[in-house]
Amino acid sequence: xTTTHPQPLxxxxxxxxxxxxxxxxxxxxxxxxxxxxxxxxRAVTHQPLVVVEPAEPADVAAAVAVATRHGLAVTTQTxxxxxxxxxxxxxxxxxHRLDTIDVDPVAGAVTVGAGTTWGPVLDACDAxxxxxxxxxxxxxxxxxxxxxxxIGPLARPRGFAADHVLAMQVVTADGMxxxxxxxxxxxxxxxxxxxxxxxxxxxxLTLALQPAPRLHAGTAWLPAEQVTAGLAGYLxxxxxxxxxxxxxxTVLHLPDLPALPPPLRGQHVLQxxxxxxxxxxxxxxxxxxxxxxxxxxxxxxxxxxxxxLAAQQAEGAEPMPSWQRGRLLHGVDSxxxxxxxxxxxxxxxxxxxxxxxxxxxxxxxxxxxxxPAGGNAVGGRQAEYLVxxxxxxxxxxxxxxxxxxxxxxLAGLGRYDCGTQLNFHGPVDDAHPxxxxxxxxxxxxxxxxxxxxxxxxxxx
Length: 460
What we know:
Elements: H1 11-20, E1 24-26, H2 33-36, E2 50-53, H3 57-69, E3 74-77, E4 91-94, E5 101-104, E6 109-113, H4 118-126, E7 130-131, H5 142-147, H6 155-158, E8 165-171, E9 177-180, H7 186-195, E10 201-208, E11 210-211, E12 215-222, H8 227-238, E13 245-253, E14 268-277, H9 280-290, E15 298-299, E16 302-304, H10 306-312, E17 324-329, H11 335-349, E18 356-363, E19 385-391, H12 401-411, H13 440-453
Parallel strand pairs: 2-4, 3-4
Antiparallel strand pairs: 1-2, 5-6, 6-10, 7-11, 8-9, 8-10, 12-14, 12-15, 12-16, 13-14, 13-18, 17-19, 18-19
């Protein structure tokens, strides 16, 4: 791979980084540079002037201070799951070496480093009978997921992951390390939980824990001939689903790969996922109601902890090119509205040559509607559903056929559109501004705070 850069890193900046950062520094011509600048999303390759792999939080502070002095933009990445655009020039902070986990069973909290992913955190908490409100996929970074809101398998009974943050260690644009919580720097505490970007680098995060919940969870796949009726049934079922259950329905074109179970290879299916917090009997009854009148080609429901549920999702989470765009929906409260949604989602996906691989409808509401004490910047609380469109993993189509098809599909849902959710926004452009992720008053407050804390625009 050949990369080009607008300018070399200033020699005095190189000297300052070498003199103040204990971790590794990598430059464009170093042998492992190309590997480091490509994250989980293989369609996005960063082109920074320098890659910094901090060995400790002090390295983050030192690197940010150097970047601010020399007018270098700073981009931070743990895994790159949510990366949608390359960082060209500037400084790339790769935090994967900051992967500490400290569970405090007495306090009911876990403190994790910026490079930690959900799998090890869920395992460590499960070992002492506790669980955070986290993600399903074990390879997703804890900090990025949480700061963007965080919608996981316990979303409806427990809310956003951001609602359970107790404290953070944050490096601001001046290179200072700050403890941020409800009492110290409360504006920044409000903003980071849901505001995510342009505010600082979170080097550690403390999350509240709960007794490990009993979960009845799993997935069912309906065959092509049941996709339309199955999606209509799912939307009707969600109207009376209790807050104890989080769920989603995804219209999929599955690839013909040996890693998939034989009944699913190369098939057009409806994937139904459910996670119920409560008794197995109630969970089984909810599954029965969800699947009423339908015959899955495969189903995998059972009893889980948060850790075992995440482990079940480990397969298929390997790095790959990805393109995704999400929107929020509300007002889908009548049979006519549900029919409109079903038609908008299923008709484009009936074409086997569609450049779209998946369209997911995720049920929201429940505890997601309720702000924690003091509030935070998480947007989308009043939405009923999140619709997420995923393109086929062909990067050559990511600037043309995929966004055109996604926008056409989402246009059919326009009357129910109520913005976007930050972690699911997808590529940002004039037609899809990031401001759509927050109510206007929240966006205005975030903008003012970003300008105040980072007046020179150090943080990308």
